[in-house]
Amino acid sequence: MNFISRSGGNGVYPRVRSKLILSLSLASLVAGCAAGPDYRPAAPAELGVPQNYSQGGGTQLSPEAMATWWTQLGDPTLDALVERAVSANLDLAHATARLRQAREALVQARAGLLPTLDASSGAGRNFSSPGTDRSSFSLGGDAAWEVDIFGGIGRSIEAARADAEGAGYDLANVRVAIVAEVATNYIQARLAQEQLRIARETLSNDSENLDIAGWRVQAGLVSSLDQEQARAQRARTAASIPNIEVQYRGALNRIAVLTGEAPGAATAALEATAPIPSAPDAIATGIPADTLRQRPDVRAAERTLAAATARIGVAEADLLPSLRITGNIGTNAFSLGGLFDTVTGGLFASIAQSVFDGGRRRAAVRSQQAAADAAFASYKQTVLTSLEDVENGINAFGSAGTRMGEFATALDAANNSAILARSQYRAGLTDFQTLLQTEQSLLSARNSLASSRADKALAVVQLYRALGGGWQSMDGIAR
Q1: Could you give the CA distance from residue 194 to residue 351 in angstroms, rounded to a whole number?
Q2: What InterPro entries does its record include (predicted)?
Q3: Coil, strand or helix: which one is 233?
Q4: Residue closest to 296 by CA, chosen among 70, 66, 13, 75
Q5: Is 362 exposed, middle or buried (0-12, 13-18, 19+ CB in 10 A)?
Q6: 402: enclosing H helix or E strand
Q7: Peptide bond into 130 cis (omega under 30)
Q8: Whole-number average pLDDT of the chain
Q9: Which of 54, 125, 278, 354 sits at 20 to 30 Å (Cα–Cα) from 245?
């Protein structure tokens, strides 16, 4: 590159100054003219969002209740497990790293608006025989700046910002899922404990019935058929226990992994029997528009659409001319003292425009437009799925409450029937088949009531996950 010697009392290079003025004038003429469409968030009506849910009132959602919804189940052990999972879960750690990566990509994109500066220096020693040895020294600097005259860099920053915000919502969505999964497995573990208690108590009753049948056979009051039926019933009850224990251990192992620990000691505290968490009688669901704000997966999908829209502008700006300004300054001397005696430099501006590329750049624009269309379809699908999740959650919560009331009545009747049948069989007033049927009905009623209690608690988990609860207290996530 040719250097222009510094001249004139004001230290300005006349030829360079004219080029610079011309370049900056061109930049000022097109400043603020960003290529591509400006992104505008879609209104709820454009996404097919109704005014209200088909079931349930529009009671306003409480941010505090949404942030810590699991505390409404009234179980301190569950609260502690959720806190452990939030701080130690490895899926959350992975999503946090992805968020950091996206934020650094935004920093890189913003750097595109600034000039780049490079500096260099050198020193050497020339040896000559029989001449005189000489030293040489040099300093230099180079600068380059691509003027964002058509907003391509600005659009890339817009896309990177949307990506970073989307990564934040992805992290929030992982947290929502982790909290819900911890609560689900905890409820299932407590249900398995209750089922084990019921099975073991039933096994004790079956053993007693087998003894009674044996005594009656020995007394010649009944045939051995009663004893064999009692023995078969006891074996069936005993065989159900290992299967329940497998489910129980599976829930405990899953909780351990969710809290970032190996199965075993991590869940030792859950070995002590505790009741199934009690669900609240009512849950505020808000309106569908609230769900769009609360669900992080919906907001992440919207940010993906915003990024795809901005990248249309990046591709369109690539079709237009680019302006690049470069400059350099340098000095050479044979001694350090004379290093600044003569300083040379240059400033240059260049405009580049693609003339022919076989349609590659225009295809890139059409590709980004298609990507934006796909992102919009995905966004709308996420919105509709979220509304479906809430409707299903409302239905599940209401149904579980109704079923629990009916099963409580069924258990009361089955328990009374079993007491009567057992006393009548001992007195020889009824046959063993009647006793067997009432015992089976009682076992079914006890298990059904326990399952309905767990189902109501699980419906709370399902509904709050559908509403997007559990991430509102996170730090550093855009609301």
Answers
A1: 77
A2: MdtP/NodT-like, OMP_efflux
A3: helix
A4: 66
A5: middle
A6: helix 360-426
A7: yes
A8: 88
A9: 278
